[in-house]
Structure formats: structure tokens, C-alpha cells
Specification:
Layout lengths: L1 H27 L7 E10 L4 H15 L2 E8 L5 H10 L4 E3 L1 H11 L4 H7 L5 H10 L4 E5 L3 E3 L4 H8 L5 E5 L9 H8 L7 E9 L5 H11 L9 H13 L2 E3 L4 E4 L10 E4 L4 H24 L3 H17 L9 H4 L1
Parallel strand pairs: 1-2, 1-4, 2-3, 6-8, 9-10
Antiparallel strand pairs: 4-7, 5-10, 6-7
Helix pairs in contact: 1-11, 4-6, 5-9, 6-10, 9-10, 11-12
Length: about 325
């Protein structure tokens, strides 16, 4: 009885967050004006995740206050109508279709047969190989669709606008590679960084070692315990061999908990109930921290005050403390 009631409540919250709040957040979102940061951002989406991807990109640009060079890669399931909506919302986005990516990957991986063979084995391989084929600069950012920003990512901005040649990664709460590190490290001769998660990565082009990737895949493609985590293992292997950088601060959060930590810069939603947590926490948080302040700033003075008087009770009764809501930005 209790389990059934709990499932019903979660289903209701998930419906409200995804079907009612998320469309408002997406519809009100706008890209910042001004020149783009030369560092590109690469996000892989599907027919089921492209809306999440829009919120992920919009939150990154809103809280960073920067316009990034966005590349949206699709896995072959995004139809023409969804592509048109992505391109309409993210003006100037570089949309990479699966067909275009397949052609580029064949050229990139022509000398690495195991890499080329495995790229078609699981869609997540696209997340590792395709940014390397399309990134216009020697540094790029990898962003998962199920990761939302809630504060200014100062470290990411500093890395993107600076000259530092290092890699940063999302530190997970547990470690998951295609095989235990005890089997990978002796075979490849590389000490893997701990609890590596590829949901948010700052990567330098010279860190990606296709020869090392080829060796990993040729050695373990038939015996991997978790082939769906090959992509994450490939990034961990290259970054660990490069060995410059390390984990992002804990404020760049990964958690299985229902709610994020109060000082989180972003949250990567993971775990068996991640979509429940994402749908009823993510869009609601973005509504109060991003959408309402953004709409308020677009209004004339008297309307802005009336809007604020309407929003204050909503913020007060929400699960997000009033002190975290940027009222001063609206005024």
C-alpha cells in the first residue's frame, strides 16, 4: 500500500515537472547576446532526451552569463520536427546529424578499426569519438543532457577563457568502468583517476589518445562486464594518461539523493530513480532560479514590481530557500 502510494506520488510529481513546468522553462529560455566563447560544448541527445538537453544548455548559458559554441549531436532518433525546435530555441547551434557524424567518424577512425567497429555498437560511443571530429578548437566541454546548472560555474569559465591545458571531470559517488580497474590498469599501463564520471568534462584535444583507445577496445571488447560504460572508460583512460587536472569540486554534484546540496553549481542526475528526481526537482528549481528572474528582467519597472509581488509567495512556499532566489537581479 505504502509502496503503491509512493509510486503514485512520484509519478504525479514527474508529470507536473516534465509536462507542465519544463515546457515553461524551455519556452522562456534565451541565449545570451554577445560573442561566443571559443571553446565548444558537445551534448548528445536522443528523441527522449533532447528536451532535457535544451534545459541543460540553457541553464549553462544563463548561469555562466556566456554564449558558448554549442554542438548538439543526435543518435539517429531525433526527427526533423524536433531538430527544427532545437535549432529555433538555440539560435546559431551546430546540429550534427547521425548521418553526418558517421561520415566524419569513418575519416577520423580509418586507422583504428576497433574504434570504428565499436562506435556503432552503442550510442554512447558517439559521445567519445564525435566531439573529436567536430570540435573547432583544441579544448571542448562535454555535457550530458541530464545535468542542470543552478549557479555560476566559475571554474568552467576560467578554464574555457584561460590558457590552462588541463582536464576536469565529474567525480562520481562510486566507480563504474567497463571492467574493474584491476584488469584495465595492468593491461594498459595507466593508473586510472578515481570515480571518473563523464557527465561533465573539460577536455583538451591532445589528451584524447586514439591509439590507447584502440588498445583498450581491442583487448576488452569481447569480455567487458559493462560495455555501456566503455565511453566513460575511454575518457577516463585518456585523461588519466594525460594526467593534468583532476576532479571538479563537490559543488559540481552527482547524487542519488532526492534533492541537491544547497551550494551546488550543477547536478548530474544518476541512479535508478534519476528521472523521477530530475523531473520533479530540476525544472522546478530552474523555474525559480532561472525562468522567473529572467522574465522579471525583461519587464518595465511597474510591471516588474507587480510580477515580484506575485512571485514572492511562490518562492516562499517552494522547497528552495528565499535567500537562494536572486530577487536583487529582478529589482
Amino acid at each position: 500500500m505504502i509502496a503503491s502510494l509512493r509510486q503514485s506520488v512520484r509519478a504525479l510529481l514527474r508529470f507536473i515537472g516534465w509536462r507542465l513546468i519544463a515546457p515553461l522553462v524551455i519556452a522562456a529560455g534565451r541565449r545570451p547576446e554577445g560573442p561566443e566563447i571559443p571553446v565548444s560544448v558537445h551534448i548528445l541527445v536522443s528523441s527522449k532526451t533532447w528536451r532535457m538537453g535544451l534545459m541543460s544548455v540553457l541553464s549553462l548559458e544563463y548561469f555562466s552569463g556566456r554564449r558558448w559554441r554549442i554542438f548538439v549531436h543526435e543518435d539517429g532518433s531525433v526527427d526533423a520536427r524536433s531538430r527544427a525546435r532545437i535549432e529555433a530555441k538555440l539560435k546559431g547551434v551546430r546540429f550534427v546529424s547521425r548521418a553526418e557524424a558517421d561520415e566524419a567518424a569513418e575519416r577520423l577512425l580509418s586507422g583504428h578499426p576497433a574504434c570504428l567497429r565499436n562506435r556503432s555498437r552503442h550510442n554512447l560511443f558517439l559521445k567519445f569519438f564525435d566531439p573529436l571530429a567536430f570540435a573547432p578548437s583544441d579544448k571542448f566541454l562535454i555535457l550530458d543532457a541530464d545535468l542542470f546548472f543552478f549557479r555560476r560555474p566559475d571554474l568552467l569559465i576560467g578554464w574555457a577563457e584561460g590558457s590552462e591545458r588541463v582536464c576536469y571531470y565529474n567525480e562520481d559517488i562510486k566507480e563504474v568502468y567497463c571492467l574493474p580497474r584491476e584488469q584495465i590498469e595492468p593491461a594498459l599501463g595507466v593508473r586510472l583517476w578515481e570515480r571518473f564520471n563523464s557527465g561533465l568534462l573539460c577536455i583538451c584535444r591532445e589528451a584524447i589518445d586514439l591509439d590507447l583507445s584502440e588498445k583498450l577496445l581491442a583487448t576488452f571488447e569481447a569480455t567487458a562486464w559493462h560495455p555501456q560504460f566503455f565511453e566513460q572508460t575511454l575518457y577516463a583512460l585518456s585523461a588519466s594518461a594525460f594526467n593534468r587536472g583532476g576532479p571538479l569540486p563537490p559543488q559540481y554534484q552527482i547524487t542519488w539523493n532526492i534533492f541537491r546540496r544547497p551550494d551546488s553549481v550543477c547536478r548530474h542526475y544518476v541512479g535508478p530513480a534519476k528521472y523521477d528526481h530530475l523531473y520533479f526537482e530540476g525544472p522546478a528549481t530552474l523555474l525559480f532560479l532561472m525562468t522567473l528572474p529572467s522574465l522579471g528582467r525583461r519587464m518595465p519597472g511597474t510591471t516588474r514590481l507587480a510580477f515580484l509581488s506575485f512571485c514572492l509567495p511562490l518562492a516562499h512556499f517552494s522547497s528552495y530557500p528565499l535567500r537562494t532566489w536572486p530577487i536583487s537581479d529582478i529589482l
